[in-house]
Amino acid sequence: MKRADLLLKIIAAAEGDKLTPAQLQKVAFLLGMKFRDRLPTDYYDFRKYDYGPFCAEVYRDAELLGHEGKVSITTNQRGGWREYAATVRGYRTELEGIPKDMSAFITEKVNWARGLSFQQLVRAIYQDFPEFRENSVFQEW
Q1: With pLDDT > 70 as the criterion, what percentage of the chain qualifies?
Q2: Per residue in 24-83, pLDDT tens?
Q3: Alpha-carbon Rg of the chain, whole angstroms?
Q4: Is 125:53 a contact under the CB 8 Å cutoff?
């Protein structure tokens, strides 16, 4: 199991819909917190950032998946941020080695994150992981 496979699984769990950067980052973070002992040794190292846990390598891996034709990356017309969706090729990729419980967790957290506004998502992460609020510019409380 590779970390890029896990990232593709996160993106594919949106079932063709797009994930925002915050959704992608926060689900990858939650996966790392829940299954830290079972993930690849090079799994993402999240740091305290403007809106909670952040790892630039998440975006780099998403870009690589885009170059491989497994992820479509578009720019949101209203906000200018990038959005991520699995392509047909991404869905057809065999993601071997992802245990069923991990896969179910990913699907659950993607659905959860997609059901929240940006503010609600950041608040929920800070509520469960207050230490990641340390460098935050998010002051809505």
Answers
A1: 98
A2: 999 999 999 999 999 999 999 999 999 999 999 999 999 999 999 999 999 999 989 999
A3: 14
A4: yes
Rounded alpha-carbon distances, angstroms, from residue 91 to 49, 65, 125, 126:
31, 12, 28, 32
Maximum Cα–Cα distance across the chain: 42
Residue 138 domain flag: no
Better pLDDT: 135 or 129: 129
Domains held by the chain: number? 1
Q: How far is CA 129 from the centre of its chain?
A: 16
What is the CB neighbour count within 10 angstroms for residue 67?
A: 10
Determine the structural domain holding residue 58 and report its residue range.
3-133
**74 by DSSP, 3-state: which?**
strand
Alpha-carbon distances, residue 118 vs 23, 51, 85 (angstroms): 8, 10, 18
Instruction: Give pLDDT, residue 139.
Output: 66
CATH number at residue 83: 1.10.10.10
